[in-house]
Amino acid sequence: MDADATRSQLAAALVRVAGGDRAALRIVYQDTCAKLFGVCLRILKDRSEAEDVLQDVYVTVWRKAATFDPGRASPITWMVAIARNRAIDRLRSRTGGGRLEPIEAADAVSDPAPAAVERVELAQQHQRLARCLEELDARHASAIRAAFLDGATYDELAARMNVPLGTMKSWIRRGLLKLRACLER
Amino acid sequence: MSDDDTIDPADRGKLIAAEYVLGVLGAEERREVERRLAQEPALAAEVAFWEERLGVLADAVAPVTPPQHTWSQIEAAIPAAAAARPASLWQSLAFWRGFGIAAAALAAASIAALAYIGLVPATRTPLMATLAGTSGQPNFVAAVTATGDNLIVVPATLLTNDPRAIELWLILPNQRPRSLGLIQPGQPIHLTIPPDLAGRLTADAALAVSLEPPGGSPTGQPTGPVIASGKLTSL
Q1: What is the domain extent for residue A140?
Q2: Which domain, by its residues, includes B25?
Q3: Cβ of B56 and A77 within 8 Å?
Q4: Could you report how far apart the first and last alpha carbons of chain B are, in Å?
């Protein structure tokens, strides 16, 4: 099946979920659970917490499916946003906001180029973002990627990359402003 | 928290949305943004912009299959279908009127649709659907004739100047959408339901409306945005 059909089938399943169709939720789950579990696990670094959050994500999808607007968002992007928000909230609620594993050395954070895009539907947008990230200072781009993938706070990123907090904020904020200007072009 | 004074204050306002989506804010700042999202459409649009653009970064994350039992726990956590949604069309109408959106137009469309199905002797329970957009605004009212083989679709609000064709889809449980034909934004339209689907329009089914290239979807499946949808409801 081509990418557009995959996307429209997932969007159609979400429309049915909005109508209270449990079978449709199962289809949505089967199509997306591995992706979303990977996203939660990457942020939380803990399987049992990631499982809890994943359940919460699909209950949220069930409740919020009616607010999904297929004209404005891709279905998978909409669901990734829910998964990341839930996982980040869980991460922040840990006592002391701590992570379960030691913070990696700074050089381990310089995230590699994104892995092969698995969904063609997003390839174009992906290329565009990659191009705009390339225009940034490499450290700024690297901090932005690490922040997104790990849900790390400014403090954590500053410690990881061994720079003062003010510097990290400035890197990311300037990077985001430049990125926005590039994405709008 | 120390801040960078060299960033323009106008940019700072926009940055909060990007920082929220990126995930660098603390718990309290996140709650603050979420509180504002409900009241500030500009902020919500900015968050949507970043979710859509940065979302592709998640492609760098390897998929991991969750344990088998996760699905059964999700299933146990969601309410039974019957209890999950408003039970009747009339409850839905009251809900939408509460928003004060196009209530008069909706009422007029409902009456037109009801008048239409009222002309046909009732051999089975008539079905209706209010097709709403994601804002909750009703865009169409559809009624299935008592014979089950005809459908009338009445626009409730002047929908769009969009030049694209407007296509109506039948969505049956566990099946791909089936096209029921093209409809018009400005006038009621009468569609004949294909014979193999005539008996399948039940309260399990939903209708959806998408924007398609002129002449309708080239693939037989919705290719454009779904602008309205709703479940069929027995009267």
Answers
A1: 106-184
A2: 9-64
A3: yes
A4: 59
Sign of the Cα pseudo-torsion (A184, B1, B5, B6, in order)? negative
Same domain, yes or no: B48 and B129 = no
**Closest by Cβ to A15, choosing from B2, B60, B229:** B229
List alpha helices for A75-137, DSSP H: 75-93, 106-109, 123-134
SS3 call for B208: strand
Q: Do B57 and A114 touch (CB under 8 A)?
A: yes
Given this model, what pLDDT does residue A125 score?
77
Does ipTM exceed 0.95?
no
A86 and A114 co-located in one domain: no
Based on the domain organization, do A9 and A85 belong to the same domain?
A: yes
Pairwise CB contact (< 8 Å): A88 & B30: yes
User: Do A88 and A122 reside in the same domain of the chain?
Assistant: no
Cβ atoms of residues B7 and A173 within 8 Å:
yes
Residues A124 and A71 in one domain: no
The rounded distance, in Å, linking the Cα atoms of B189 and B20 is: 46
Higher pLDDT among residues B155 and A65, named by residue? A65
Q: Is there a single domain that holds both residue B147 and residue B228? A: yes
- Is B72 within the bounds of a domain? no
> What tens digit of pLDDT does each residue of B6-37 get?
677 777 778 999 999 999 999 999 999 999 99
Shortest Cα–Cα distance, A108 to chain B (Å):
15
pTM over 0.90: no
Measured in angstroms, the CA of B134 and the nearest CA of chain A are apart by 6
pLDDT number for residue B182: 86
Indicate yes or no: CB of B77 within 8 angstroms of CB of A59. yes
Give B-chain residues touching A84 at CB under 8 angstroms.
23, 58
